[in-house]
């Protein structure tokens, strides 16, 4: 359970670091780019994945290439969501993306729809609507970003999960697929950061470099601890999956409300409760 707690903590700390980016005068685009340099290096150093499966016929390079583009783009969307909508809504949107991967499981992977899963899907959709809902007065103050970016995070992480299932179905070991994804995402992330600079963004700084390396270390630690949790509890994958999602939503809510004074209206609070119930139904 220590590994699971570590994974939950690192996942929330990623959002905290993105939340603090403006306060620390760091550029999120540069942080995301350096993050993949650190995460890729740690993957090679710690996991030492065999890369031979990537050269075999049938290797899912199309899905890996799509992930290489989508990962940095959604990381930037997560940064924007944390800034405009807060940690609580962003974490809920990210974790409720399992609704899309579950729908893909019904349509693409032949999973059967049961009453429990159907109830979880319905509660999840209601939770998502409640979490991004703002009263008219609050919506004008917060702008469209308060609901657009969480929805982008929801859709993006759902697409990533579907692509990861495609990669796993091709038989590529998780370490090799991570190494490939980080390597492909690295030039894309730097291209996006350079484009932001050309358009008048912040210059590349040592401060953003340091923050990005820390972000990459947390990103890798989150993945590594999550994998170790599955290895420690091989007969209880649903427990690990549910614990991760429920834990991140609960801890993210505590950090967002207590540390950053994020405000949740009654509808948002109901959405948080529905999200916890939905994740429980969908993962146990």
Topology:
Layout: H1 2-19, H2 28-47, H3 61-85, H4 87-95, H5 98-108, H6 115-132, H7 136-142, H8 145-169, H9 174-198, H10 206-232, H11 237-259, H12 266-283
Please provide a written account of the structure.
It is a single chain. Helix 2 runs antiparallel to helix 9 (174-198), helix 2 packs across helix 10 and helix 4 (87-95) runs antiparallel to helix 11 (237-259). By secondary structure, the protein is mainly alpha-helical. The radius of gyration is 18 Å and the shape is globular. The protein has one domain (2-283). It is built from twelve helices and no strands.
Features:
284 residues; mainly alpha
Give a short overview:
The chain has helices at 2-19, 28-47, 61-85, 87-95, 98-108, 115-132, 136-142, 145-169, 174-198, 206-232, 237-259, 266-283. It is an all-alpha fold and 284 residues long.
How many domains in all? 1
- H-E order: HHHHHHHHHHHH
**Please, how many helices?**
12
Shape: globular
Number of strands: 0
Strand content: under 5%
Average pLDDT value? 91
Structural class: mainly alpha
- Report helical residue fraction: over 70%
Give the low-confidence spans: none
């Amino acid at each position: 359970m220590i590994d699971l707690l570590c994974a939950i903590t690192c996942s929330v700390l990623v959002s905290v670091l993105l939340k603090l980016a403006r306060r620390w005068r760091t550029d999120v685009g540069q942080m995301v780019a350096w993050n993949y340099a650190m995460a890729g290096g740690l993957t090679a150093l710690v996991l030492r994945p065999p890369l031979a499966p990537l050269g075999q016929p049938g290797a899912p390079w199309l899905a890996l290439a799509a992930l290489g583009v989508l990962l940095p783009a959604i990381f930037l969307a997560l940064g924007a969501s944390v800034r405009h909508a807060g940690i609580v809504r962003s974490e809920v949107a990210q974790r409720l993306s399992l609704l899309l991967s579950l729908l893909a499981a019904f349509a693409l992977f032949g999973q059967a729809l049961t009453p429990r899963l159907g109830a979880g899907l319905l509660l999840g959709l209601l939770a998502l609507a409640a979490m991004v809902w703002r009263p008219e007065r609050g919506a004008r103050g917060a702008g469209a970003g308060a609901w657009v970016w969480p929805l982008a995070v929801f859709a993006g992480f759902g697409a990533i999960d579907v692509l990861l299932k495609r990669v796993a179905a091709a038989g590529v070991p998780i370490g090799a697929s991570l190494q490939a994804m980080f390597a492909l995402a690295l030039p894309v992330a730097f291209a996006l950061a350079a484009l932001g600079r050309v358009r008048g963004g912040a210059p590349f700084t040592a401060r953003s470099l340091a923050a990005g390396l820390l972000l990459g270390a947390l990103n890798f630690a989150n993945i590594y601890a999550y994998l170790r949790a599955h290895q420690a509890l091989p007969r209880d994958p649903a427990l690990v999956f549910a614990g991760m999602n429920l834990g991140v939503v609960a801890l993210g809510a505590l950090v967002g409300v207590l540390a950053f004074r994020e405000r949740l209206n009654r509808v948002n609070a109901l959405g948080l409760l529905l999200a916890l119930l939905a994740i429980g139904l969908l993962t146990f």
